[in-house]
Amino acid sequence: MSTPQFDRKLSYSDYLLWDNEERIEIIDGIPYNMSPTPSTKHQQVSMNLSFQLMNFFKERNCQVFTAPFDVRLFSKGKKNDEVFNVVQPDISVICDTNKLDDQGCIGSPDFIIEILSPSTVKMDKIVKRNLYEKANVKEYWIVDILNKLIEVYYLDSKNQYGKPLFFTIEDDIKSYFFGGLEINLKEIF
Predict the structure, then answer these.
(1) Where is the Putative restriction endonuclease domain (predicted)?
(2) H or E element in which residue 134 lies
């Protein structure tokens, strides 16, 4: 998934100038090709989750965004050439409107959902999980369409993700941080 090696870390400034037709994300200054266009099932699950989240968050001063939507982690108070982490989560929830600008999100969303594709499993389950933990994303869901499973991580009192919680199609998933957010997974898959 990684693009060719560069002799320096790439920044958000480089990202903005990227002229390839391929979409990329930058993690710790390293560019990664994003997977091909999502499958129909991926899009259906994304839309189903987005619909549920939009209904829940519309009265709570939080905004829900779907990819493509740039999230510039560790970027508060930095210039574009000082930002080395730019991702496009499948779904992002931002509750602090000061983090929003015309380019996307400055800093960490409160809640991120990534939907696995065959080519993104390692990226979403290891690389992004560690990145989101480091960036203090409060809650992170990894959606496994194939197995109809959602893996949930949330920050503990030490600002670390502990062992994940798992929810299957037979469950109602409940958010750890957003009280009242409960979704019947039969409506998602």
Answers:
(1) 14-184
(2) helix 128-134
Neighbours of 151 (CB within 10 A): 19
Rounded Cα–Cα distance for residues 154 and 136 (Å): 9
CA distance 129 to 168: 20
Find the Cα–Cα–Cα–Cα dihedral 120, 123, 124, 128, rounded to 10°: -150
Q: What does the pLDDT read at residue 3?
A: 45
Q: Which residues of 94-112 are buried (b: 16+ CB within 10 A; e: fewer)?
A: bbeeebeeeebbbbbbbbb
What separation in angstroms does the CA of 32 have from each of 10, 58, 76, 86, 120? 11, 33, 23, 10, 11
> From CA 3, how far away is CA 12, in angstroms rounded?
16
Contact 1, 26 (CB under 8 A): no
In tens, the pLDDT along 125-142 reads 999 999 999 999 999 999
**Cβ of 169: how many Cβ atoms within 10 Å?**
14
Residue 33 to residue 40: CA distance in whole angstroms = 20
What is the fold, at CATH topology level, of the domain defined by 40-70+89-187? tt1808, chain A (3.90.1570)
pTM of structure:
0.93
Max Cα–Cα distance, the chain, nearest Å: 49
